[in-house]
């Protein structure tokens, strides 16, 4: 397996098994250089979002990389203020403009229940999804999906959707494996993507993981990202340091033993859980 190996989505679109995340990566030179470094290191899957504020820098790096568009997989996401049919159409058009692309490979609803629409989230998601289905049918998004959706959000969306989400991007790491929604996604052929696969850095403070990494002569990040892949998740590691970007993609020349996996499985709750989408204040 390599960085260019793929999972196959429900619509037969291929998605590289590891993505490069750009959350909390400042717009401008930092986001540009980190994305370019990732592409130069062999990543072909780049994950951004309107809310990250760095789509222009990410898009510039994609253009300057010289890599053929059909070799890349680019994800962006619809922010909470833009739920609704016309709003979602306009938001995708703006994201494409900023990225400098004719289409994205994956477009996601970032959160299911924004505070501004809490009394009508079901209808807002239905209207938003209709716009996303149109974008998919028009070729502006090769795949569509969601992020931070729990089971009841998905069940509600299924009532009106004519195309099921192909991806659900979730807070997935050893501290929180979100077992209920992961099982639901698997049953409906929805790929589970793992954002914050390293717990936004908290994993590096745990000596039990360091012991596994030392024994394998690997980094803590490599061990935990390998664990994520073994779980069937698609991890989205983020870094702005060239050497770590390279290391985080070097996951395919070792295996975790059952004992190693058990150690990492035992970290449940060690550094927090996902935000409850129905309670977020944004």
UniProtKB/TrEMBL annotation:
- At the top level, the lineage of the source is Bacteria
Under which main EC class is this enzyme filed? oxidoreductase
What keywords tag this UniProt record? NADP, Oxidoreductase
In terms of Pfam families, this protein maps to: Aldo_ket_red
GO: which molecular function terms?
Answer: oxidoreductase activity
Identify the InterPro entries for this entry: AKR, Aldo/ket_reductase_CS, NAD(P)_OxRdtase_dom_sf, NADP_OxRdtase_dom
Presence of keyword NADP: yes
Q: Where is the NADP-dependent oxidoreductase domain?
A: 18-267
* EC number, as in UniProt: 1.1.1.-
Keyword field contains Chloroplast: no
- Give the protein family: Belongs to the aldo/keto reductase family.
Q: This chain belongs to which protein, by name? A: Glyoxal reductase
Which species is this record about?
Periweissella ghanensis
């Amino acid at each position: 397996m390599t960085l260019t190996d793929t999972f196959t989505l429900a619509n037969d679109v291929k998605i590289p098994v590891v993505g490069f995340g750009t959350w909390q990566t400042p717009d401008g030179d930092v986001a540009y250089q980190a994305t370019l470094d990732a592409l130069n290191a062999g990543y072909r899957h780049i994950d951004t979002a309107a809310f990250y504020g760095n789509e222009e820098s990410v898009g510039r790096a994609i253009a300057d990389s010289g890599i053929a568009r059909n070799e890349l997989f680019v994800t962006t996401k619809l922010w909470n203020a833009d739920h609704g049919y016309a709003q979602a159409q306009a938001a995708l058009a703006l994201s494409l403009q900023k990225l400098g692309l004719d289409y994205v490979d994956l477009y996601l609803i970032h959160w299911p229940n924004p505070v501004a629409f809490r009394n009508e989230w079901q209808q807002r998601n239905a209207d938003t999804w209709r716009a996303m289905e149109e974008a998919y049918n028009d070729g502006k998004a090769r795949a569509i999906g969601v992020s931070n959706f729990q089971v009841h959000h998905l069940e509600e969306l299924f009532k009106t959707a004519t195309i099921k989400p192909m991806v659900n991007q979730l807070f997935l790491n050893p501290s929180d494996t979100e077992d209920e929604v992961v099982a639901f996604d698997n049953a409906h052929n929805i790929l589970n993507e793992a954002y914050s696969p390293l717990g936004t850095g908290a994993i590096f403070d745990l000596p039990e993981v360091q012991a596994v990494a030392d024994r394998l002569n690997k980094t803590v990040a490599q061990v935990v990202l390998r664990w994520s892949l073994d779980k069937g998740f698609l991890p989205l590691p983020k870094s702005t340091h060239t050497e770590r970007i390279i290391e985080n993609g070097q996951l395919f020349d070792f295996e975790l033993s059952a004992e190693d996996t058990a150690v990492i499985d035992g970290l449940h709750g060690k550094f927090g859980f996902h935000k409850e989408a129905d309670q977020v204040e944004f």
